[in-house]
């Protein structure tokens, strides 16, 4: 991807934080004091991709999950068909049954084809080791001093 589409952040570091919420709190503090926050950028540093395993996949879990997700979609389409004047019970029932069948099949086929190579569920997230706030150099000293007085940052850059 071209660097023109996603330019690297620029500015002087004015504070470093252990969590994103701490960095947000510092920007909020600056905003409360009428600091021009459009001059700031929060940057996650030392990024890691973390996959949190949440459970084991089994045939009953796969089929039940497919049935539930299919049921919701089927009920949605059944509800849409009720607006066409075909009654209420028949479209909802048909939508539910078709949704469950479609959901079970669409969940079972990929699971069967995986041949047990990924028998667990997980979610992936990107986390940072720390969060730095960068500021336009013209206002960086002022922003750093405000953050220092607030006591929010884990470390502050030295004046350069």
UniProtKB/TrEMBL annotation:
**What's the superkingdom here?**
Bacteria
Transmembrane region positions? Answer: 62-84, 90-113
- All copies of domain General stress protein 17M-like, residue ranges: 14-85
Pfam families on file = YflT (PF11181)
Listed InterPro entries: GSP17M-like_dom
Q: What UniProt keywords apply to this chain's record, in alphabetical order?
A: Membrane, Transmembrane, Transmembrane helix
- Put simply, this protein is called Magnesium transporter
What organism does the UniProt record list as the source?
A: Corynebacterium humireducens
């Amino acid at each position: 991807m071209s660097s023109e589409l996603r330019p690297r952040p620029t500015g002087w570091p004015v504070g470093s934080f252990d969590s994103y919420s701490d960095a947000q709190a510092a920007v909020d503090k600056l905003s409360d004091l009428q600091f021009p926050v459009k001059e700031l950028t929060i940057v996650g540093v030392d990024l890691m991709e973390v996959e949190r395993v949440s459970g084991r996949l089994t045939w009953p879990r796969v089929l039940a999950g497919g049935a539930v997700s299919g049921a919701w979609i089927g009920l949605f389409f059944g509800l849409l068909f009720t607006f066409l004047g075909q009654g209420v019970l028949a479209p909802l029932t048909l939508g539910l049954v078709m949704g469950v069948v479609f959901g079970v099949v669409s969940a079972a086929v990929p699971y069967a084809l995986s041949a047990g190579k990924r028998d667990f569920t997980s979610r992936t997230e990107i986390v940072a080791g720390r969060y730095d706030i960068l500021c336009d150099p013209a206002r960086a000293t002022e922003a750093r001093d405000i953050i220092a007085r607030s006591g929010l940052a884990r470390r502050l850059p030295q004046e350069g």
